């Protein structure tokens, strides 16, 4: 017998779980099922990242990222404190390592002010006082940054959702979709689900899910692998708080940073190299089908034309250890190759437009029966509670509950 529900959420990462949570907090009578293809929550992007709660420093004023990051980060800190998830306010430094980066650092300072972020300028002496091992000509000290464990956040949300009455189905990939009257019929290995509203938070597979559901996604997903190294335990005091380079404003990546984790380890990374499979955590993870599709795709050709220099440099640093070490030493000259060791990677779902442009802001497509979250890059985890409420408002509009939708939307702008 098919299960009839109001809302089916595909994807058990932090954003899918936060969306389900927002729906049930706003209307506990709604029936919500979350489908996750893996055997655990937050198995991919949500559980393989830097675990930084961002301040909202980087994002273009007025963008959805900027609007969500500042308030969303504070809400995430409160959520962690309320649910016994490890969290610590650390602040961070964004460091210009050369004079030619100073105009970009000044742009960040202007964005910080526009976005309501506390960012104090530091000179060489002040950098050395705070982080003696870090080299820089100037920096911004950002007060609001914090550290957590987003895998633990996902587990806390899953536990909360069970108490709210949601049905959580791990090991349940969505195999196919069909229209069934006013509902979408989702076939899984454990039977069919008939949903009034489909919410696609499938991350790396979000564009494929949108197409399978009969919709044409406005962007497509290009997987980028972010590889991490770890500072050996004897040098774990090399920095006391997260230290970031000044990012390239033309790219939606923050650059290789040095981050003390809550467990006492220090991670360096991530880089950003094209992955050869949607879940391409290693160079040897290759999906011929994805490569064949990309080879035919004008977006890939456009991407190559736009970013080939950056892409080649990232791949070289991934494949040649001394080049990676040289990049790290620009920020922390006291580190050398013997101080670092590989420690895994994550894969980022990066949206690309048809002309090859990398999309920097969130992308959410809305159709008659579905909401497709097609780009949710950093700071999506930071802002997930606010983004989940934003998506929940769209769900209630689909369900004809405009009053509830307005109330939920207002909660994200208060």
TrEMBL record:
The cofactors required by this protein are:
FAD
One GO molecular-function entry: oxidoreductase activity
Species whose genome carries this gene: Saccharopolyspora griseoalba
Kindly give the InterPro entries that the UniProt entry links to this protein: FAD-dep_OxRdtase, FAD/NAD-bd_sf
Superkingdom, taxonomy of origin: Bacteria
Known EC number: 1.1.3.-
Q: Where is the FAD dependent oxidoreductase domain?
A: 6-392
**Family listed:** Belongs to the L2HGDH family.
Against PANTHER family, the record matches this protein to: L-2-HYDROXYGLUTARATE DEHYDROGENASE, MITOCHONDRIAL
Q: Among its keywords, does the record have Protein biosynthesis?
A: no
Coiled-coil positions = none
User: Which gene specifies this protein's sequence?
Assistant: lhgO
Which keywords does this chain's UniProt record carry?
FAD, Flavoprotein, Oxidoreductase
Protein name, as recorded:
L-2-hydroxyglutarate oxidase
């Amino acid at each position: 017998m098919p299960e009839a529900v109001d809302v089916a959420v595909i994807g058990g990462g932090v954003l899918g779980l936060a969306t389900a949570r927002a729906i049930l907090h706003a209307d506990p009578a709604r029936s919500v099922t979350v489908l996750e293809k893996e055997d655990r929550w937050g198995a991919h992007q949500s559980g393989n990242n830097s675990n930084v709660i961002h301040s909202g420093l980087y994002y273009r004023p007025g963008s959805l990222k900027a609007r969500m990051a500042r308030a969303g980060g504070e809400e995430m800190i409160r959520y962690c404190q309320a649910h016994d998830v490890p969290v610590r306010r650390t602040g961070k430094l964004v460091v210009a390592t050369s004079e030619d980066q100073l105009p970009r650092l000044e742009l960040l300072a202007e964005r910080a002010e526009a976005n309501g972020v506390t960012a104090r300028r530091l000179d060489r002496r002040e950098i050395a006082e705070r982080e003696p091992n870090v080299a820089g000509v100037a920096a911004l000290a950002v007060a609001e940054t914090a550290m957590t464990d987003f895998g633990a956040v996902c587990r806390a949300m899953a536990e909360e959702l069970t108490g709210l009455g949601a049905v959580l189905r791990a090991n349940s990939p969505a195999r196919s979709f069909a229209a069934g009257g006013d509902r979408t019929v989702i076939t899984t290995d454990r039977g069919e689900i008939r949903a009034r509203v489909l919410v696609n938070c499938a991350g790396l597979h979000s564009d494929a899910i949108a197409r399978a559901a009969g919709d044409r996604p406005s962007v497509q997903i290009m997987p980028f692998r972010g590889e991490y190294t770890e500072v050996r335990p004897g040098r774990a005091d090399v920095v006391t708080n997260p230290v970031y380079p000044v990012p390239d404003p033309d790219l939606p990546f923050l650059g290789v940073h040095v981050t003390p984790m809550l467990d006492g380890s220090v991670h360096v990374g991530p880089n950003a190299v094209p992955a050869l499979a949607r879940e391409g955590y290693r160079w040897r993870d290759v999906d011929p089908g994805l490569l064949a599709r990309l080879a035919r795709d004008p977006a890939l050709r456009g991407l190559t034309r736009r970013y080939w220099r950056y892409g080649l440099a990232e791949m070289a640093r991934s494949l040649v250890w001394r080049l990676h070490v040289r990049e790290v030493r620009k920020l922390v000259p006291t580190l050398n190759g013997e101080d670092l060791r590989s420690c895994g990677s994550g894969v980022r779902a990066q949206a690309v437009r048809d002309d090859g442009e990398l999309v920097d802001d969130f992308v959410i497509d809305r159709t008659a029966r579905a909401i497709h979250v097609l780009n949710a890059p950093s700071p999506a985890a930071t802002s997930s509670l606010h983004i989940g409420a934003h998506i929940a408002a769209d769900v209630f509009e689909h369900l004809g509950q405009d009053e509830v939708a307005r109330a939920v939307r207002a909660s994200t702008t208060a």
